[in-house]
Every structure is written in structure tokens, then in C-alpha cells.
Design goal:
Number of domains: 1
Largest sheet: 5 strands, antiparallel
Shape: globular
Structural class: alpha+beta
Number of strands: 5
Helix content: 25-40%
Number of helices: 4
Strand content: 15-25%
Length: 142
């Protein structure tokens, strides 16, 4: 394991408020609590981001997402929605370079969290979209 903050949390060298743990993942409250219940799921093996996952690790980590999301939602009747995010790379707002998944419970439009999705529909013809899709398909590992 690496010497990152999440590896230290996994090894119990740094305290955390743990919600769930098994052989593959540790789930704990984020100290920032963007909204109450903001939770992180981290693989116990150190991988910097999604690009370092293999299929086995992905199955182990992502198969636990619904269980954690349902438990968080059930924990508070005021939770009306939830953002689940996995940031990969500094430009994508990843600040700890040990892969992790955020669960951000949503209580109202007035909570302290928002995402902006730019709409550039008018800039993409069907042909341009097909070119992008074909380029991605050419790089799929079969």
C-alpha cells in the first residue's frame, strides 16, 4: 500500500468514521461533509484512479455502490436524491489520488452542492458525434 491519506485510513493509522468495511473496500464519512452523510467508498488496494482498475477490481468496488447508496438514503427521510461521483485526475476535481467514490446526499435545491453541465448540442452534428463514437469504439479493449 502507498503512503496516501486513504491508505493510512484503510490501515487505521488515521481515524475515520467507518460505515462499512470488507476485504475489498472501506466506506467512511468524508470529513468535509458537503452535505450531511457525505460518504466515501475506497478500494483497499491503492489505485490512483479509474484508469488503473482491472475488471475484477471494478466488480468488487462498483458492486457495493447500490448497497451503500440505499443505506445512506434510508438513514434520513429528508434525503430526496443523491449524487454519486468518481473524479479522475486533477482537472476532474480529484484531490486525493487514491481512487474513491463520493456519495453526496441531497436534501433540497438550497444545499451547498451543485454541478453545471454545459449544453453544447448546437455544436455537434450527427456526423461529428459519429466520428467521436467511432474513435472511442476503436480503443475499446475486447
Amino acid at each position: 500500500m502507498e503512503d496516501c491519506i486513504f491508505c493510512k485510513i484503510i490501515r487505521n493509522e488515521i481515524p475515520s468514521t467507518t460505515i462499512y468495511e470488507d476485504d475489498y473496500v472501506k466506506v467512511f464519512l468524508d470529513i468535509s461533509q458537503v452535505t450531511p452523510g457525505h460518504t466515501l467508498l475506497v478500494p483497499k488496494v491503492h489505485v490512483p484512479d479509474i484508469f488503473a482498475y482491472d475488471e475484477t477490481l471494478a466488480a468488487q468496488v462498483f458492486s457495493r455502490v447500490p448497497k451503500i447508496a440505499k443505506a445512506i438514503k434510508a438513514s434520513d427521510p429528508n434525503i430526496v436524491a443523491m449524487n454519486i461521483a468518481n473524479n479522475n485526475g486533477e482537472l476532474a476535481y480529484q484531490s486525493v489520488f487514491h481512487s474513491h467514490i463520493h456519495f453526496v446526499p441531497r436534501y433540497s435545491k438550497k444545499d451547498d452542492f451543485w454541478i453545471h453541465w454545459g449544453d453544447h448540442t448546437d455544436q455537434y452534428t450527427p456526423e461529428k458525434l459519429q466520428t467521436i463514437a467511432d474513435n472511442i469504439k476503436a480503443h475499446l479493449e475486447v
